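All the exercises in this workshop are built on plain-text protein records. A learned vocabulary of local backbone shapes supplies the integers on the structure line. Once this layout is familiar, the rest of the handout is easier to follow. An example says more than a description, so a record of this kind follows:
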Amino acid sequence: MAGPSPTADERRPPSSSALIVRDVVRGLYEGRYVAGQRLAEPDLMRAYGVARSTVREAIKRLVAEGVLESHPFRGAQIRQFSRHQAVNVLLVLELMIGLAARQAAAHIGVGNHRTRFQESLDRLLALESASDSYDFVRARNHFYRTITRIAGNEEIERLLPSIQVHLVRAHLRLDREQRFVDYRAMAGAILAGDPTRAEAAGRAHIARIAEALDALPDTAFAPRGSGHLKLVSEDI
């Protein structure tokens, strides 16, 4: 049975401001934008070939999404975290990914969940040798979105995008081989319908990211209380 036809809003291409938002987030992964970097309106107007109103709308959206911070008289800059804040992001993420994996494993036999999840896993594993590409980032994000949707937990779906984990994880390096060992462990437990093992695998993966963060020297971070983290241009 075919799904509902897309609405007019769904068929409409993204606005120029939405494209800027997407490119700034992508630029964080690719190293074109870094934490603490100021985004001046004239520079963005030239870079994207748009009017000031479009740039201001994009900045407004990025501030609302927590990617940028706006300061009076200083304009906007990429949000930064202190070490304390970054650790807290990963502690929250560990719990959320663990719970999502647990619930996905419990619901994997419902409807077409198994097929959808296997497709997202295949897409991710196909990029194992290209895990430094943005295609990999998109496949990884799709993998996690599929897990949260199969989990059926609307609160996780609502909250997960708001914690801006990409501002932390897009700039840490986790061993490629270990990373895919973790993905396979999580996926295997979900496909086996084993909630306990799926939760443990999901939490273990995020814990390894936290270990990579902890290994960074203090000079990589702004002082606690300033709310800033200097990110290094490496992907996990």
Observations:
- The two ends are 39 Å apart (CA to CA).
- The mean pLDDT is 83.
- The longest strand covers residues 68-71.
